[in-house]
Design brief:
alpha+beta; eight-stranded mixed sheet; 25 strands
Length: 529
């Protein structure tokens, strides 16, 4: 290393940054944008110089649409995506076994299922990143080391065309995928959830009159299980489980969906082989080094929740990390990240594995029986709707969720209707901002006013939001006079109907305590909790 290069390393190490994010895929960039919304600076390190051009993830849900809204790209994503009707299970002759129809108006204010092209999403996210002065993207770099993982700053070493470099960070987010270097630094190992299959994934562009219902088809054929979906105006995806023997031409595999004897345009954008696995890392954190997305969990794609889970990780962690770095909240607030996200990730993976085995689980008699039982179960009234809702069950009781028999809304998401504030129509989250908030069914009394003033958060009567009664009905159905919402819009605590206030707040109040640090470079003047 030359003297100039040594000097460069020394200068970089001396500067340091609040957060280093390893990986500039959708999870890493979304995490950077969410931190930027809270005034936290970050450097994102990525081995590719540009967006990876080939499609991968193609589906998301309404909760993740809400997260993209929070990251500041909600409208841009709407322009590049299309709603989906849901999921159908077909038999080997493409007859419908069951249909899981998804609503165009979900709890979070968006269609329950949306199709998109991942490279387009990544361009939207990177464009937004370039507009944020708090964010810096360094492409074409290779991260070579992370550590030590203590309570002090973490050293991140990397190399690029100019040589070796290092950064010191108050926190490191490992969004570097299934082969994560960060996972090695954390000392985590995979827990195998016992699913592994080889599939061929094919993305096609064609103007053919492809037979589809504007949703996802899962073909429950023991000889050739398959998945099909329309992704864009002229973009389609097929996935087929691999089997021994001669490889079939793509057109032959897609023939059941194409017009008879179709000989027109049929551009294969990508054809690749994947091994679908179900795994969860045994630990997601060491000191201030965290795992997110595929670095922390892997799922088969059968319910379209791979990328969704990673974006939920980013949303859950970033507001907590911002409070610790920016407002001096206690370090144990960060312990709730794995405690809340890991059970949900495991739950979603097991749902995907169960659906995968029911649809494609081998060629034995038991597999055929499973498919018949699934088809029969899906004819039970209301079951498809409940199954879709189960993708994001309420958080269990914990430091940031106070659940009791009289607090049924605790741990659930607050719905996001359109509201009117000061004559302006907007979505609820935009009206509430990025902090905690209290929603009340009536005008807040002295006790609630004093509490919220002491915490530095707003208490907002839902009647002031002019939402056509949707929030009032939600509170009434949950037998609540008021709810305390976290920044990720999960209900932390509830004032049951007829109660006086948020009693026994000691369990969560210490975690929300802040010691303002005006000397911190990311400090803000606001006192909101």
């Amino acid at each position: 290393m030359t003297v100039d290069e040594t000097a460069r390393v020394s200068v970089v190490e001396a500067v340091g940054v609040p957060v280093v994010i390893v990986g500039a895929g959708p999870v890493g960039v979304t995490a950077a944008l969410l931190l930027a919304r809270r005034g936290i600076r970050s450097v994102v390190l990525e081995r590719h110089r540009d967006v990876y051009p080939l499609p991968r993830a193609v589906a998301t849900d309404d909760e993740v649409r809400r997260i993209l809204q929070a990251a500041g790209v909600g409208e841009e994503f709407a322009a590049i995506s299309r709603p989906s009707n849901g999921l159908r299970l077909l038999d080997a002759r493409h007859r419908v076994l069951a249909e899981f129809r998804r609503s165009a108006h979900g709890l979070h204010g968006y269609p329950q299922t949306t199709m998109f092209d991942q490279p387009e999403l990544e361009r939207v996210l990177r464009d937004a990143l370039a507009r944020r002065p708090e964010c810096e993207l360094r492409g074409g770099v290779e991260v070579t080391g992370i550590g030590p993982n203590t309570t002090g700053p973490v050293r991140v070493a990397y190399r690029d065309d100019d040589g070796e470099h290092a950064l010191w960070a108050e926190a490191v987010l490992g969004c570097d995928g299934a082969n994560s270097l960060t996972r090695e630094a954390v000392g985590a190992v995979w827990e195998d959830l016992r699913f592994e299959e080889d599939w061929t994934v094919i993305d096609v562009r064609t103007t053919a009159d492809v037979r589809c219902w504007e949703g996802v088809d899962q073909v429950c054929d023991p000889e050739r299980p398959a998945t099909f979906m329309r992704v864009g105006e002229d973009r389609y995806r097929w996935e087929f489980r691999q089997r021994e023997g001669a490889k079939q031409p793509v057109r032959d595999l897609a023939a059941p969906w194409l017009p008879p004897s179709y000989a027109g345009d049929f551009e294969i954008v990508r054809e690749t082989q994947y091994t679908f696995r179900a795994r969860v890392a045994d630990r997601w954190r060491s000191g201030r080094v965290f795992l997110l997305g595929d670095a922390a969990h892997l799922t088969p794609p059968f319910i379209g929740q791979g990328l969704c889970a990673g974006l939920r990780d980013a949303y859950n962690l970033t507001w907590k990390l911002a409070r610790v770095l920016q407002q001096g909240s206690p370090e144990r607030l960060l312990d709730t990240y794995e405690g809340e996200r890991k059970p949900h990730a495991r739950h979603v993976i097991r749902l995907a594995v169960a659906l995968g085995w029911a649809m494609t689980g081998g060629q034995d008699g038991a597999a055929a029986l499973r498919r018949r039982l699934l088809a029969a179960a899906c004819r039970i009234p209301g079951l498809p709707r409940l199954t879709g809702r189960d993708l994001s069950p309420p958080l269990t009781a914990g430091p940031l969720v106070r659940r009791t028999a009289h607090r049924g809304l605790a741990g659930t998401h607050c719905p996001q209707p359109w509201v009117r504030v000061d004559g302006r129509r907007t979505r609820l989250d935009e009206a509430l901002g990025d902090s905690f908030a209290v929603l009340t069914a009536t005008e807040p009394g002295p006790w609630l006013t004093a509490l919220t003033r002491g915490l530095g958060i707003p208490a907002i009567p839902v009647t002031d939001l002019s939402d056509d009664g949707k929030l009032t009905a939600w509170l009434h159905a949950g037998r609540a006079d008021a709810v305390l919402l976290r920044p990720d819009r999960i209900v932390l605590d509830v004032v049951p109907s007829g109660a006086r206030d948020f009693t026994a707040t000691a369990a969560w109040a210490p975690l929300l305590h802040t010691t303002r640090r005006p000397d911190h470079p990311n400090s803000r003047s606001r006192t909101a909790c």
